[in-house]
Specification:
With about 160 residues, the protein is mostly beta strands.
Amino acid sequence: PQPTATGVAYLNLDQAASRTLSNLRICFADQGVTTPVPSRELRLWDCQFYQCNTAIANQVWGFGARNLLHNVLFAQCGAAIGTSTNAVEIEAEHVTADVTSFLSAPSPACKLALTNSIILGTLGDATTVITPNTAINPAGVVFQGADYGSYYLTQ
């Protein structure tokens, strides 16, 4: 299966009161999940996105929109996060991303902070970029498959 560009999210949280999701797996979506507009924030814990065009669609306008990621896998996705505004802030830890672009936005994001992460693909533009202990496009073979998993570190 391949994702089809529908412009529709598998999980549309635009009007949701809750802003936290955990243990979620979304495959083959045009847009995986949207950022809730009322809270202006999406927190993801222990989630996987596989072959999505855009895993997280942040369509919140104005300042203060945030995506907080904790132990999230983006496997063979077009964009991990797609935004329609430059005021988005992204804070992520323990993220593995095999993507075309980690952040796809019409103009630079306000902040992009990645800690203890591995990004294969372009990072995207942000006014402030913080990347302690983050490998961006590391050389050589980075991942190996084992059993049903494909993103185990080779070393």
